[in-house]
Specification:
This protein is an alpha/beta fold. It is built from 8 helices and 7 strands; from the N terminus they run E-H-E-H-E-H-E-H-E-H-E-H-H-H-E. The chain has a 7-stranded parallel beta sheet with strand order 3-2-1-4-5-6-7, with helices on both faces.
Amino acid sequence: MNLDLSGKTALVCGSTQGIGKASAIELALLGANIVLVARNEESLKQTLKELDSSKGQQHDFLAVDFQTPDKLKEKVENFVATNGAIHILVNNTGGPPSGLIQNARVEEFLQAFNNHLVCNHILVQALIEGMKKEKYGRVINIISTSVKMPLKNLGVSNTIRAAVANWSKTLSNEVASFGITVNNVLPGATLTGRLTSIIENKSKNTGESLNEIKNEMESEIPLGRFAEPSEIANAVAFLASPAASYITGINVPVDGGRTGCL
């Protein structure tokens, strides 16, 4: 099975922590050059030091906030113009705050739509021509199992993730003839800052202890535990590799069996 990414360049969003960082680390281990994307320049510099470069990889970063889509577009287009094609795009950004959909403000939907779908689209448009010329492209979107079954108390997230999933499926059909695949990875409950935030928010609203909520959530997972970010990253790395060349337009749950449908 060919998992070698030598000579390929991957742009990984939200890559200074959690699933994004784990994905960048794994892709580098397979030989890819990594372009880290996140807001905090110091965190980006620190993460850069943690990436494998034993195969001669050249790593770089872009410090940009997804709340400024125009600046994201400018920085990525300038990077490509200077450095050449990017073969792998990992779209990943922090999810919207938890809460009931009936209480969500319009502004929350608009912000989430911009952070997720609009920024994903900007990145694809900036990179797609390079992928076509290279005859190799992988677009991997980190979204949520909520695209299969909406999750309780995540109203805005459920809505926006579904939009991203359908955008992704549409795109996959349009670019397949160029050797470009587009897939979604759907993490279950994963040991990240977002999971901690969800648990803390639920504790505040219900009065249950953090431990009670953690145990309750883990009891819903057939494997009986939360995922490590690296376990989600393994799926990302496989989909980015030559071995996944005939897989496109799909949702891949990595959730320990929690999602109650096929």
